[in-house]
Amino acid sequence: MTNLEDQTEFRPSQNSECSAAIDVQFRVETGGRPGDDRGLWHCVDPNYSNGKCGKATVTIWPDVIDAEAAPGDYELNLRKTACHEVGHTVNQKHHAPPYDDCMVSGNVGSGHQKYNQDHRNFINGIYL
């Protein structure tokens, strides 16, 4: 992911596939599994020699997020899920609380919409 911050496009319409200017393409669908799936990522341009993903798709299931989020926390959990799945595209793994970032699995209340400094250092070490 050459320039994740500059290249990732967040827009309401869906392109049929990733282009040269897009690192992550988001898809919104129904059909996730409550208690398990809120989102899913898939690398569409893997580099097996270095373990990096060049381009990815991220699928989000807002119906599951809406059903599981506490009242008033839908948008927070939607952003957290997007951050979480993009984190997987750059080799981030799940972890348990008390870490205050988006790679924590499950429903969150607040503060989990970013990567912690350890994650940022790891990502920058691989991709910069």
Low-confidence stretches at least 5 residues in length (pLDDT < 50)? 1-14
Shape: globular
Q: How many β strands by DSSP?
A: 5
Radius of gyration: 14 Å
Structural class: alpha+beta
Helix content: 25-40%
Oligomer: single chain
Strand percentage lies at: 5-15%
Query: Count of helices?
Result: 4
How confident is the prediction overall: mean pLDDT? 78
Largest sheet: 3 strands, mixed
**Gap from first CA to last CA:** 9 Å
**Sequence of strands across the biggest β-sheet:** 1-5-2
Characteristics:
single chain, 128 residues, alpha+beta, three-stranded mixed sheet, two-stranded antiparallel sheet, 5 strands, 30% helix, globular, disordered N terminus
Structure, described:
With 128 residues, the chain is α+β, with helices and mostly antiparallel strands. Helices cover 30% and strands 15% of the residues. It contains four helices and five strands. A three-stranded mixed beta sheet has the order 1-5-2, covered by helices on one side. A two-stranded antiparallel ribbon has the order 3-4. Helix 2 (62-68) packs across helix 3 (74-89). The longest helix is centred in the middle third of the chain and has 16 residues, at 74-89. The model is unreliable at 1-14 (pLDDT under 50).
Topology:
Blueprint: H1 4-7, E1 24-28, E2 39-43, E3 46-47, E4 52-53, E5 56-60, H2 62-68, H3 74-89, H4 117-127
